[in-house]
Write a structure and sequence with these properties.
- Residues 72-129 form the Disulphide bond isomerase DsbC/G N-terminal domain.
- It comes from Moraxella bovis.
- Belongs to the thioredoxin family. DsbC subfamily.
- It is found in: Periplasm.
- It is a single chain.
- With 284 residues, this protein is α+β, with helices and mostly antiparallel strands.
- Helices cover 37% and strands 19% of the residues.
- The protein has 10 helices and 13 strands.
- Strand 3 (86-91) and strand 4 (97-102) form a beta hairpin.
- The longest helix has 15 residues, at 7-21.
- The protein is globular, with a radius of gyration of 20 Å.
Length: 284
């Protein structure tokens, strides 16, 4: 079968492959459970094509949106056979460099011709302390994306008493540091922090277990049991697991736990409960 490559699909495949190579795959019976969609996605041999595609930029009413740059970028993506739609292009603090947001792809910097792309940290020097331009732009994107996720799709452990801050955690039930983080969930909640879990299975073999957690009638208990290594079974259902995987990739998630504060800052991986609460409140 020949498919046109998408930036999100290609990058996600590379990320998953890298994780499997470093031993994150689990071969126990529960984790090997696959849905029909999983089998379809993994059992077919796919070849990519570099044939041009014919996308057009999405409509955007933001007054800062740069339609000419968006069109130039879209044309170059199409010519390169990259099947991704440009959603927005806005100016940055760098002269003639813009911040581009695409459907299902991590945002990046692009020049005014839509030809040259920069991904990674970009710093501004000369005005006192260095300014992380890329970090500020990415945080805005993270806030927008996470606020758009319906709370019904998350597994939420609310704060006890006053809610001082909330965090978003992309998590894999089989990940050691995710399990360690969850062991301290009571302390984290007691410190006034609401924990909002999103699904991020690190490989295909973890998807079945993660979907069972999200399809359980009591998802809090199911997640806690899964993180304790207990079997979790549930009838299959429509669930947001793969949607969360795509979102996580778009936000730059490459491992678990990936913790984001309310202001969009990624707090890192595992942090002890007291330190996590302090960082969450400071970045609400």
């Amino acid at each position: 079968m020949t498919i046109k490559p998408t930036l999100s699909h290609t990058a996600l495949t590379v990320a998953m492959t890298a994780l499997l190579l470093v031993g994150c795959n689990q071969d126990n019976k529960t984790n090997n459970k696959k849905t029909d969609s999983t089998a379809t996605a993994t059992d077919q041999t796919q070849e990519t094509s570099t044939e041009p595609v014919d996308n057009t930029p999405a409509q955007n009413d933001d007054p800062n949106h740069q339609p000419d740059v968006a069109l130039a970028l879209q044309n170059n993506l199409n010519k390169s056979g990259l099947n991704a739609q440009v959603q927005s292009v806005v100016p940055t603090d760098m002269p003639e460099m813009y911040w581009a947001t695409l459907d299902g792809v991590s945002p990046f910097f692009v020049d005014k011709t839509g030809t040259y792309v920069i991904q990674g940290a970009v710093m501004k020097l000369g005005d006192g302390r260095p300014v992380d331009i890329s970090g500020a732009m990415m945080s805005k994107a993270v806030v927008s994306e996470l606020q758009a996720v319906d709370k019904s799709e998350m597994i939420i452990f609310p704060a006890k008493g006053e809610t001082k801050a909330s965090i978003y955690v992309f998590s894999d039930p089989t990940c050691h540091y995710c399990q360690l983080l969850h062991k301290e969930i009571d302390q984290t909640n007691a410190a006034g922090i609401e924990v909002r879990y999103l699904a991020w299975p690190r490989g295909e073999s973890m998807i079945g277990l993660t979907e069972s957690v999200w399809c359980s009638s009591d998802r809090q208990t199911a997640l806690s049991n899964a993180k304790q290594g207990k079997d979790v079974t549930a009838p299959s259902c429509d669930n947001p697991v793969r949607k969360h995987m795509v979102l996580g990739h778009k936000l730059g998630v490459s491992g678990t736990p990936a913790i984001f504060a309310e202001n969009g800052k990624q707090l890192g991986g595992y942090l002890p409960s007291a330190e996590l609460a302090k960082e969450a409140i400071a970045n609400r």
